[in-house]
Amino acid sequence: MHIAICDDNVADRKQLERLLKKESDRRAESSGILYTDSYGNAASLLSNPMQYDIFYIDMCRTVGISGLSIATKLKKSGVNATIVMCCSDTNYREQEFPKGTLFIDKPINASELSKSLDHALLIREKAQPLIELRTEYETIYVTEPDILYAVENGRFTEVTLSDGRRVNIAATASNFFADVESHPSFLSPTLKTVINCRYIKKIILNKAVMSDERVFIISRSCIAYAKRAMNDFPEKI
Hints:
about 240 residues; alpha/beta; five-stranded parallel β-sheet; 6 helices; about 30% helix; elongated
């Protein structure tokens, strides 16, 4: 399990590191070693947050940044991992945090810390694998049901998401399919297209009509799989 601490109180940060080291020793033969990275500022944490399974946050001494803003930015960046707000000078329970946020009080109790780690492990086990969509300017993380289809267009492939967004990734459709083919709902009916079969509304001859009415040609060798997959993976509402 990979853990991030973001706390602008050096003494509190070091104390949490020590508690997590003891937890890591205790869990080494059961749930595995705990790997911890500590940050005294938010910018370093927010530059690469997707690697972490749980975050412990308390920012009370830095002007212009708050624990709430960090938690909100983590969620907006696509983080689904557990966020734990450590209450000290600020009682974060009085603020409106993203759904699923946990709260513990400082000084942190070892048993409460252990409970939060158990929760994070459970969330990690239930979480759907993330798919990375890398554009020229940013990287977006989505899950399999978020993707409707992808169409190659020149040197980019346009990925259409279930919420209507379109993301141009710097890859061919074939390369994109190689990244997602471990998800059996995806099908590449032609060399330049990838579709999510859970969003096929109907198949007419050699054409698949998607839930947004977009129509794709399906090669003859793929029709049987498409028909089976559209029934095996119902549309995600």
